[in-house]
C-alpha cells in the first residue's frame, strides 16, 4: 500500500498541461481570426488540443474526488498535476482517444488513474469517484454548447462555430459512452459498489474487454445509427445543427480536402 502523502508540489500544474492549454488558446485564436492559411489545420490543432485538455480534466476529476474521499496516494502518483504522461496508461488515456477522434469522430473514454479503493469508505464515495470523470465531460459539453443555446453566436466566425460544434459532439459521445454500465467503464464503476460480491466476482473477468465490446457494437450499422441519432438529438436540443457538426468534422479532417458544401454555406 502506498503511504505517501500529498504535498504542495504534487498539486503543481504540469508544464506539459500548460503547453497543451497554450496550443488550444493559440489555435483557437487562429481559427477565430482566420489567421491560418489553411483553416482546417487550425481547427484540427484546436479541437485535438482541447480534446486532450478535456481528457486531462476527466482524469483529474477522478483523482481529486478520490483525494477528498480518502486516497491520499494520488498526489504522489502525479495525478493532480494534470500531466497526461502520469496516467497509468498513456496509450489508452491519450493516444487511442485522439486516434478515434481522427478516424471516427467519437469521443473515446480515456483510461486511467489507479485509485486505491481500499483507502475509501462508503459506497457513495466510490460511486462519486467514478462519476466525476464523465461529469467533467458533461460540463465541458455545456461550455462548448453555451454560445448555441444562449443564442450568442452574433459575430462568431463560422469556422469557430463548426469547431465548437464538433468538439461538443466529442464531449457528448464521451459522456454517454463513459456512463454506460459496462464493466471497465465509469458507468459500471458508479453501480459496482451497490452490487453483491457474487455478481462483482462474476463480472470482474470481463472488465478489460468492456470498451472493446462497446465499440464492436458500434460497428453494427443499426446500433451505430441509433447511437448517433441520440447524439444528434441531444445536440439539436442544445442548438447545434447536424450541419454544424458535419462541417466541423469536415474541417477537422483537412487532409481530405476542402468541402465545397461547407465553404459555400459560409
TrEMBL record:
Top-level taxonomy: Bacteria, Bacillati, Actinomycetota, Actinomycetes, Kitasatosporales
Coiled coil: none
InterPro entries linked: Metallopeptidase_M50B (IPR052348), Rip2-like (IPR044537)
Record's subcellular location: Cell membrane
Highest taxon of source: Bacteria
Alphabetized PANTHER family for the sequence: ZINC METALLOPROTEASE MJ0611-RELATED, ZINC METALLOPROTEASE YWHC-RELATED
Family to which this protein belongs: Belongs to the peptidase M50B family.
Keywords: Cell membrane, Hydrolase, Membrane, Metal-binding, Metalloprotease, Protease, Transmembrane, Transmembrane helix, Zinc
Membrane topology: Multi-pass membrane protein
Any one Gene Ontology BP term: proteolysis
Cofactor: Zn(2+)
Transmembrane residue ranges: 16-35, 90-115, 127-150, 162-185, 206-228
A GO molecular-function annotation: peptidase activity
Record-given protein name: Site-2 protease family protein
Main location: membrane
Amino acid at each position: 500500500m502506498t503511504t505517501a502523502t500529498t504535498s504542495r508540489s504534487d498539486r503543481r500544474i504540469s508544464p506539459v498541461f500548460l503547453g497543451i492549454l497554450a496550443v488550444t488558446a493559440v489555435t483557437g485564436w487562429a481559427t477565430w481570426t482566420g489567421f491560418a492559411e489553411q483553416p482546417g489545420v487550425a481547427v484540427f490543432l484546436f479541437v485535438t488540443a482541447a480534446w486532450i485538455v478535456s481528457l486531462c480534466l476527466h482524469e483529474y476529476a477522478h483523482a481529486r474526488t478520490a483525494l477528498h474521499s480518502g486516497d491520499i496516494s494520488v498526489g504522489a502518483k502525479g495525478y493532480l498535476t494534470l500531466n497526461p504522461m502520469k496516467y497509468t496508461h498513456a496509450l489508452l488515456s491519450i493516444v487511442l482517444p485522439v486516434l478515434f477522434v481522427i478516424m471516427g469522430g467519437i469521443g473515446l473514454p480515456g483510461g486511467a488513474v489507479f485509485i486505491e479503493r481500499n483507502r475509501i469508505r462508503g459506497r457513495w464515495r466510490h460511486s462519486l469517484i467514478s462519476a466525476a470523470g464523465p461529469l467533467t465531460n458533461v460540463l465541458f459539453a455545456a461550455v462548448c454548447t453555451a454560445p448555441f443555446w444562449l443564442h450568442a453566436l452574433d459575430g462568431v466566425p463560422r469556422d469557430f462555430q463548426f469547431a465548437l460544434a464538433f468538439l461538443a459532439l466529442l464531449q457528448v459521445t464521451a459522456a454517454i459512452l463513459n456512463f454506460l454500465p459496462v464493466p471497465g467503464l465509469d458507468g459500471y464503476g458508479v453501480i459496482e459498489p451497490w452490487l453483491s460480491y457474487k455478481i462483482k466476482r462474476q463480472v470482474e473477468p470481463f472488465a478489460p474487454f468492456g470498451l472493446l465490446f462497446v465499440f464492436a457494437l458500434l460497428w453494427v450499422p443499426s446500433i451505430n445509427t441509433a447511437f448517433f441519432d441520440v447524439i444528434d438529438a441531444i445536440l439539436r436540443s442544445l442548438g447545434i445543427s447536424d450541419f454544424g457538426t458535419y462541417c466541423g468534422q469536415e474541417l477537422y479532417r483537412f487532409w481530405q480536402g476542402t468541402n465545397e458544401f461547407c465553404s459555400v454555406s459560409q
